[in-house]
Amino acid sequence: MTVSDEKIKIPDDLKQCVAFHGHICPGLIYGYRVAREAMRLMHLSRAGDEEVVAVCENDSCAIDALQVLLGTAAGKGNLVVRNYGKNAYTVLSRPMRRAYRFSRRTGYTYGGKERELYDRLEAARIAGKASENEERQLKRMKIADLLSQPFAELFTTAEVPYDEPPYAPLQPSCPCAVCGEMTMAGKMIPLPDGRRVCIPCSQQS
């Protein structure tokens, strides 16, 4: 499914998330809505360095929207994944020394005939019996719901104590005494004979 074949109005900043992620899906919308709400609450702009930090309690598609809109990335050290399988995210602002945690409130809350349709499509999907058209229809329903609902209907929002996360470590690299490959000094393991080796070589030893 692509953005162009949907009747749903897709905001420009969400299109950027879709381009980065590769497709539009409910998981991406979760991250999009959380990022937008965090930006609103703390007046955030996209981080050039580590001024914004996102702590994600899952490793889902949502993370990509946080990367695009908030400028959080594993390579910069300001994207932390604690994979508890929870649809929950904490966004911190270093300049403001504030942090908010967002947690998905409930499932999809359709009513009437729309609920009947959703339940039928979801049951077919879970059973592995949904056709491609039914899969697309179900995805469209979820995306439309996530984009149209007030944020408070989708997520609980709680300001949490600001706990300053450490900055990404900058350490020299040294050659492993066994394989010779350059390894971050803080990740090396000392052996009883005084040599320092990389983690894979320490496990083989």
Give me a quick take on this structure.
This protein has about 200 residues and is of the alpha+beta class.
Explain how this protein is built.
It contains seven helices and nine strands. Helix 1 (about 10-20) crosses helix 3, helix 2 (about 25-40) runs parallel beside helix 3 (about 60-70) and helix 4 (about 110-125) packs across helix 5 (about 130-150). The chain is α+β, with helices and mostly antiparallel strands and about 200 residues long. The strands form three sheets. Strands 2-1-3-4-5 form a five-stranded mixed sheet. Residues about 1-5 have low confidence and may be disordered. The protein folds into two domains: about 5-160, 60s Ribosomal Protein L30, Chain: A, CATH 3.30.1330.130; about 175-205, Wheat Germ Agglutinin (Isolectin 2), domain 1 (2-Layer Sandwich), CATH 3.30.60. The chain has helices at about 10-20, 25-40, 60-70, 110-125, 130-150, 150-155, 200-205; strands at about 50-55, 80, 90-95, 100-105, 155-160, 175, 180-185, 190, 195. Helices cover about 40% and strands about 20% of the residues. It is globular, with a radius of gyration of 21 Å.
